[in-house]
Write a structure and sequence with these properties.
Length: about 60
């Protein structure tokens, strides 16, 4: 379930400020040590790139 008052845990962007419904659905929710965290679409994309950059060359 999406919290309407969520803010991005990386950039502090508020989810409630999204005017585009599709953009509001693009937010990512994660559980970290039992705590719910939210990532805006831009930070989620950057986070995935960070993970991909750490993969060994053999993976690709």
């Amino acid at each position: 379930m999406t919290a309407p008052d969520a803010t991005c845990s990386r950039c502090s962007r508020p989810r409630s400020g999204e005017s585009d419904p599709l953009a509001a659905l693009s937010w990512v929710s994660t559980k970290d040590d039992g705590r719910e965290r939210w990532l805006c679409p831009n930070c989620a994309r950057d986070h995935v790139r960070d993970i991909e950059a750490k993969l060994p060359d053999e993976y690709w």
